[in-house]
Every structure is written in structure tokens, then in C-alpha cells.
Design a protein that fits this description.
104 residues; mainly alpha; 2 domains; binds zinc ion
Length: 104
């Protein structure tokens, strides 16, 4: 591999060029492993707590991957809240009709 700055041949594992001292891009390729991940979004959706924990662990080093898990967790929480709200209204309506029947 060759240095992007000075063009000298350098060790392919070198993070910094020994000739000019510039970063070789090796460290930035490690950062590039960070990408949105649908798998973790789905995991976060079904297990919002795990998604939240993964978000907190990853948010500094791999923010895109963290965002996927966090977003999945958020959607999971909203959907489960909507479902429980639906059931509360349904049960409330059922109990209300029962009570109404009792009084009449
Ligand atoms: Zn160089």
C-alpha cells in the first residue's frame, strides 16, 4: 500500500505514514465499519430495552449502528404503547358496558 499524501510505499498495517507522518486512512477504514443495521433495528423493535442499551453502548464509537438499534427500540416502544392503549380503551369500553348493564 502507498501513502495518500507523499506516495511512499508503506506497511499495509501502518496507521500513520513513517515518511511524512500523515494518517494512512487505516484508522478511517475502521470507522467505516459503522453503518445502519436493520438486524439491530429489528432486535430493538422486539426488545426495546436491549435496543436502548446497545444504543448507549455504541453511540460514541458507531453512531449509525447505535441509531439503528435506538430507532428500532423507539418504534417498538411506540407500537407496544399504542397496542396497550388500544387494549385499555377496549377493556374500558367492555367494563363500561358491563357497569351500564348492571345499573339498568
Ligand atoms: Zn506519507
Amino acid at each position: 500500500m502507498y501513502c495518500n499524501t507523499c506516495g511512499n510505499e508503506i506497511n499495509e498495517n501502518a496507521v500513520v505514514c513513517p515518511k511524512c507522518g500523515c494518517a494512512t486512512g487505516k484508522s478511517s477504514s475502521v470507522v467505516k465499519q459503522d453503518a445502519p443495521n436493520t438486524g439491530f433495528a429489528v432486535l430493538g423493535f422486539f426488545f426495546p430495552l436491549i435496543g436502548l442499551i446497545l444504543y448507549l453502548i455504541w453511540k460514541t464509537e458507531t453512531p449509525l449502528k447505535a441509531k439503528s438499534a435506538g430507532k428500532g427500540a423507539l418504534i417498538g416502544v411506540i407500537v407496544s404503547a399504542a397496542i396497550s392503549l388500544f387494549y385499555i380503551i377496549l377493556i374500558g369500553a367492555f367494563v363500561g358496558s358491563m357497569a351500564g348493564g348492571y345499573y339498568y
